[in-house]
Amino acid sequence: MERSNSWFGRWRKKAREGEGQGGGRPRDREKVVVDGSEIRELMEDREAFGMLVDSKFRQLDADGHGMLSVSELRPAVEDIGAALGLPAEGASPNTDHIYSEVVSELTHGTSQGEVSKAEFQEALSDILLGMAAGLKRDPLVILRMDGEDLRDFVAGSRYEPTAAAIFSQVGFGSDSEDASSLRQCVLAALQKLTVDHGVPPASDTWVAENIVEPALQQLLPADQLEQQQASRDDLFQQLKKLLGAIADRLQEQPVIVAHTENHYDGSGVKRLLANKFELDKLLDSVWKGLPAEHKSKASKEYLIAALDKMADAASLPYYGAVKEVDAVVEESIKTVGVEEGKAADEAEFKKSLTDILRAIMLRLNDNPVFISTDIVVHEPLSGSSTLFSSPPLTT
């Protein structure tokens, strides 16, 4: 029986095999919901998890002395990111902090820190359980996009009002002298369409080179597209033609997309604040885990670090992950008015955090933040993940 090389490999395999299964609409057959259940199954199988830890530790321990250095541990952290679908380290400031935090946690915050196999197992367990909890709260949907949904969109009643709204939104179709070229208008409109319309992320380099550019070549000649100013009728006609060509390309080369949706409306914070027992227990844990230097000198940084430790319980993203929520957190800290540099005792610290959480709740309740993310899962993944590879079977 075939054993998949990685968690994403298994998900891709499921998405591919969805084609041709009986029952349901095409979209239902072409998606896989990843909710962390497979990770939980692995963690519950102590023998399988132990084999995974032994196998991975041996692979990472290049010098064989039984401890992992920072340089040896880094590939494991990068593999965790790849398995989560995060951009590669160095590619995005919004996710780079995650890599640094994981390495710091594993090596006790020192660049010379080394990790024993027992520590590696404990840390890997914490990371996987955290990953599973996150996926249970915010499932990842793996979509296989083969052009069928896109054809349905173009042929259906949604196309014209959607196209009209996009062109109106970006201000195209003007008869002024500085009106954009037809090519610019069509490409800008394409960027506004999403997986909900059957379009994979057009900003992805692979999608742009292998799907969008070949489809563009089926429109008017390139020089005519560049020089011709866009009228409303031209835009409707050429966008529809481009989407049809993209659907044809997707039929030849289906694209696998990892889709997530997050809605931050403060309801998770409200639930936490309403559960005094849980809130007090969490505040105690955060205070005890706070370094001594932060207890003697208040700062925005230590408050943010403390809030990150409460993020899961409050259904909030970690600081740095969602800029819109970061802005809410920063404004809430200002509202509470914690004095920078002032020493804070335990009671003041807990009151400040509670007041900040309440301010975050009110702001998100008034102005919820909705984030939709689509990441193309390339086949094969660049720098394919090996951390979650199945350990070799022994006889």
From TrEMBL:
InterPro entries, A to Z: EF-hand-dom_pair, EF_hand_dom
The stretch of residues making up the signal peptide is: none
Q: Name one GO molecular function term.
A: calcium ion binding
Domain of life, per UniProt, equals: Eukaryota
Per UniProt, residues of the EF-hand domain are 57-83
Region (Disordered), start-end ranges: 1-31
Q: PANTHER family, alphabetically?
A: CALCIUM-BINDING EF-HAND FAMILY PROTEIN, CALCIUM-BINDING EF-HAND FAMILY PROTEIN-RELATED
Q: What is this protein called?
A: EF-hand domain-containing protein
